[in-house]
Amino acid sequence: MREFLFSLVYSSGIDAYMDAFIENESLLSEAVISCLDSDKFWRIERVTGEPEALDRLDSLLLDEMLDRESISTRACRSTRQHSLLEADNRSRVVYTLLSDVSYCDAVPFIAVQYLTGGTVFEVVREQREARWRILMQNDEKIGMVYDTLGARLADGIEFEFGHLEDATGWQNELLSSRQVRSEQQQVLELAVDRGYFETPREVTLDELADELDIPRSTVSYRLRRATAELAKGYVEEEY
Q: By CB count within 10 A, which of 82, 102, 105, 118 is most buried?
């Protein structure tokens, strides 16, 4: 199996859904997508964040008229259905089905024009960036995917190449049980290494934020989420 990683970086005002992430830095979306055929796809998406930010996002998450798939200036012509699977104070899980698609400049629909054999997609949205990962049987036609994506991008969306290589150790955190996510683990490991949990503390949140080059509020949020998940996992194991 091969994997192709790339990012789409959005300017404000280009995509209403991405604008919510640009304006609320605590929001994080992780989704798994699969095209059933050339006119249908499903998506399972988990969004986490501060309660107030999620409350503001709810209307977009479940709006079946909102096109948040297209990366061009042309809207997808399709039928869109959402189902809210889970909801709590800090997360939402939504299932989406796009069917009767007659035209759609979405990454999955562009890719399956050239890739065959059960292609799976992941996308992580955070602030201005949508990080895509395509898992495929072979990359013989990935150059055509790359060229088509670049040609159809709307003004204000930039393409950033990640890598094209063998998919080793592939797993998806969205479909797993309770665990610390990669971006949270990065903050947690640095906090432990720098002595954040020592008494007295040897490093501040501001210093961690500077080292990671992300906002202080993002460091604080990810650290709280990581420690909360570990604590809940410990309690569940004990009882």
A: 105
